[in-house]
Queue: 2 jobs
Job 1
Amino acid sequence: MYDVIIIGGGPAGMNAGMILGRSRRKVVIFDNGKPRNRWAVAMNGFLSSDGMSPKEFLDKGREELKKYNVDIFNKTVASATYSKGAFVVNDTEGTVHRSRKLILATGLRDILPDLEGFEEMYGKSIHHCPYCDGWESKDMAIAVYGQDRKGIGQALAMKNWSDKVTLYTDGTSKLNRKDLELLSRNEVEVCTKAIARLQGKEGRLQRIILQDGEEREQQAMFFSTGTVQQCDLGEQLGCEFTSKGIIKTRRLQQSNIPGLYVAGDADRDVQLVIVAAAEGAKAGVAINMELQKEERK
Ligand SMILES: Cc1cc2nc3c(=O)[nH]c(=O)nc-3n(C[C@H](O)[C@H](O)[C@H](O)COP(=O)(O)OP(=O)(O)OC[C@H]3O[C@@H](n4cnc5c(N)ncnc54)[C@H](O)[C@@H]3O)c2cc1C
């Protein structure tokens, strides 16, 4: 019986593991190696580690956890339930693990635009988060990708980083008169034509080629297409979700299920590595305090 099972070994899960390991708790982390930012060349906006590669950051975290005797299993968790006073976790190899408390730190997955040429530039000159990659794209000719009305907010936001912003709705025309006036007032260009493909070199976007043959010079792209949970364990356990598919938590990362905590992108807050790590730390402290109360004689 573990004190705590943590599912997800990204920044949220590992920082929870660090606090709990340092609190001398018996902890295991399960991770199947798909951190959300694995496409990115750099992890920006984390004080002291700004610009470090995401892999280097996670490798360093794993190394640091060794001295606190936190087990890390490179395995996928297939199911999780609460039964007879314990969380019961099954990995995909059929092994059953039990714990007193459980942390879900399983993160989100981005719904990626279906565009030819996208994959080789994703994480290098195509991004979704201006706080992560806006600085590196400053003053560039920025394309914002969002079908229907999804890209309006992102396009307006990108004016913070560049004067040259164009919103591409890729063949959809749901922008109304007010939207168009707002975008025009803020000097955002709009292109509603369908995109044929993206063209670039060594990961750097150079132009967007439209289906009618027009070629438009662009140097960076930001997209706004939504996210989904990386796995369905939150649903299996009966967590409450927001209308956007994010798990609802309270101040110290508690979910609506007693003993179950959720940290990182999977629950509601700013989606940055430093915030995910902080939420993991909060969950770790809250769980340790809960265990202390249960153990007090
Ligand atoms: C392209 C890109 C670039 C980004 N750049 C930045 C940046 O520069 N700065 C920044 O602060 N943020 C950046 N982000 C956001 C950042 O990636 C997230 O905020 C952060 O990774 C959230 O951490 P997390 O621990 O919640 O989830 P994740 O890092 O996604 O980790 C979740 C882990 O859980 C594992 N997992 C999921 N389900 C299971 C299961 N059933 N069994 C076992 N393991 C499971 C996954 O394999 C994964 O390793 C970027 C995101 C993207 C997509």
Job 2
Amino acid sequence: MAAQFAMVAAVLSCLLALASCNTEGDILYKQRLAWKDPDNVLESWDPTLVNPCTWFHVTCNNDNTIIRVDLGNAGISGPLIPDLGGLQNLQYLELYDNSLNGTIPATLGNLSKLISLDLYENQLTGEIPATLGAIGTLRYLRLYENNLTGVIPTSLGNLTSLQELKLQKNALSGSIPSSLGNLKTLFFLKLNENMLSGTVPLEVLSLVISGNLTELNIAKNDLAGTVRSSGFRVILTRIVTAIITVSAIIQDKLKTT
Ligand SMILES: *[C@@H]1O[C@H](CO)[C@@H](O)[C@H](O)[C@H]1NC(C)=O
Ligand SMILES: *[C@@H]1O[C@H](CO)[C@@H](O)[C@H](O)[C@H]1NC(C)=O
Ligand SMILES: *[C@@H]1O[C@H](CO)[C@@H](O)[C@H](O)[C@H]1NC(C)=O
Ligand SMILES: *[C@@H]1O[C@H](CO)[C@@H](O)[C@H](O)[C@H]1NC(C)=O
Ligand SMILES: *[C@@H]1O[C@H](CO)[C@@H](O)[C@H](O)[C@H]1NC(C)=O
């Protein structure tokens, strides 16, 4: 009788543990099913384990919740599922250099502890979700070399911990939001090889003085008309000559007269 009771209790607590602990494993397993994985890098993602902490390419903290997913250059293809936004303690989402396609889910804006979102060198399409502007912890946002369209969300100006914003080699259009001038922590701002138009906001240029910006690359966009305006040229020259710490402001060739 006592033995039976103990067994029932063990099974119950196990079920409870599964219910409370494997939510994150369920999310990643669902993502595994949505991906093609020709190199079998996801073979260890076994949903029958109590939690995903022993799976390859997954790192947990001491509370057995996921803080990293490292699948750069892993040969995977397919979509990002919106459920990924449920990985509440995720700090690093490293999925660069794969063949991911479809859109970036707006739910990723729920990853309130995210430090690094690396989705560069994939085939993602659609717009950059404005919800990403809610991730105050974000330091690295690298979405370059995809096929992203639409505007750079104004909300990215809320990312006041951001050190790298790399959106180059997409098909982004519209103007560069002046809100990016809030990003005093930014070291690298790469927007080259898009279809951006309008003027480069003074707020952004002045980050060279008021912030940490050391590389601003705006080459190969549709900014040419404004880049050639004398007002812009004067201001840019003043910044370049005043600030010796700037290593590069790369842009389309300026007319000198
Ligand atoms: C993603 O790629 C797969 C395989 O090429 C294709 O079947 C699917 O339609 C693509 N999805 C999107 C949203 O482009
Ligand atoms: C996550 O984000 C989406 C879209 O931004 C939102 O609709 C949803 O309510 C959020 N989910 C949770 C669990 O916070
Ligand atoms: C992305 O853009 C490149 C270059 O324009 C193109 O070759 C490729 O087919 C596009 N991929 C998708 C998934 O749209
Ligand atoms: C983020 O930025 C947008 C647009 O600049 C603003 O309307 C919004 O209130 C900000 N959200 C947060 C959470 O700071
Ligand atoms: C600039 O970078 C330095 C060194 O990383 C850091 O200590 C400082 O707080 C940064 N400045 C701003 C305005 O973020």
